[in-house]
């Protein structure tokens, strides 16, 4: 299934974990599922998050595949092979942390680690029908994670349940301390462009939660997506552009990397101004609401055969990428639709309030499960 690129048996006898192959494990090369890095030197030491896993008695059983160089959203990889989406085999597994999401969905690990630069944990979690979390930017150590420099990327966990996701955060983040779910939360529901079918599922779930729901707008939301694209292009080209000279980068990624090299300083400066404005807008909204809610993806995941053009499908990150730009923590919860296809409910919290966000998610999930008939996508909001 091309989920695991390196089988391992490292660590204690605790939780079974798999790790995305952009995260260093001492003695093993970090190849990022790219032929251009097939001769990479073995890492000299563990990434900080890997050391945290080992210090907490976890057993690391594999390094997982990904969309090449973590620079794509579908998870399709013609070099290592594309992981089959275990729960929805006809659909893409999502990217870039495709193998990490598929490993959890297939029951191969208690939890796994991915990285999220523009939705690369939340999108594959949504596609595979599991939980995925992007922490506050800078909260979880990225020492030993590729790329070395980023203003967007976060290490985050995947799990098949919210309690396991919370346990994973407590392991990889020494500052994380779980908190009890609140009795009620006030939710700002972001108005964003998404398909009617996806919106119906998300709105029905929010209604079923029984919480206070109010509409909220962030003026620069769509501009934040575009700005996030500019920043990821500049930073990924800086980190990986030199690999184009090897002639071994896959054609889809090579084309995108070449285009990324055309980002101008003026475009980056404009993007940084959008970052500042949008971050302030989200901060302001979270002064009035405990959390913000919106879909994780704007439509159902694509079928594998419809997802060949990496650049053409980047819009599937339109609802997640803005929060990489702003740095706010965000979690995706799996929902089901009348069509039998996966939908994600994305919840966003204040910077640094990662534990409170996951506690609020626990409350919503409990309430939705208590009123399953109300969360049917047939119910109108």
Q: How many strand segments? A: 11
Order of helices and strands: EEHEHEHEEHEHEHHHEHEEH
Report the average pLDDT across residues.
95
- CATH class division: Alpha Beta
**Number of helices in the DSSP assignment:** 10
CATH architecture label: Alpha-Beta Complex
Termini gap: 39 Å
Helix content: 25-40%
User: Per CATH, what is the topology?
Assistant: Amidase signature (AS) enzymes
In short:
Residues 14-358 form the Amidase domain. The chain is of the alpha/beta class and 381 residues long. Helix content is 33%, strand content 17%.
Which helices and strands appear, and what pairs or packs with what?
Elements: E1 4-11, E2 16-20, H1 48-55, E3 59-64, H2 98-105, E4 111-116, H3 122-128, E5 131-134, E6 154-159, H4 162-172, E7 186-190, H5 196-209, E8 212-216, H6 221-240, H7 251-260, H8 265-288, E9 291-295, H9 321-326, E10 330-336, E11 342-348, H10 354-370
Parallel strand pairs: 2-3, 2-4, 7-8, 7-9
Antiparallel strand pairs: 1-3, 4-6, 5-6, 5-10, 9-11, 10-11
List keywords for this structure.
single chain; 381 residues; alpha/beta; Amidase signature (AS) enzymes; 11-stranded mixed β-sheet; 11 strands; 33% helix; globular; disordered C terminus; Amidase; Amidase_CS; catalytic activity
Structural notes for this entry:
GO terms for molecular function: catalytic activity. InterPro entries: Amidase, Amidase_CS, Amidase_dom, AS_sf. Pfam families: Amidase (PF01425). The structure is a single chain. The protein has 381 residues and is of the alpha/beta class. The chain has one domain: Alpha-Beta Complex (Amidase signature (AS) enzymes). 33% of the residues lie in helices and 17% in strands. It has an eleven-stranded mixed sheet with strand order 1-3-2-4-6-5-10-11-9-7-8, sandwiched between helices. β7, α5 and β8 form a beta-alpha-beta unit. It is globular, with a radius of gyration of 19 Å.
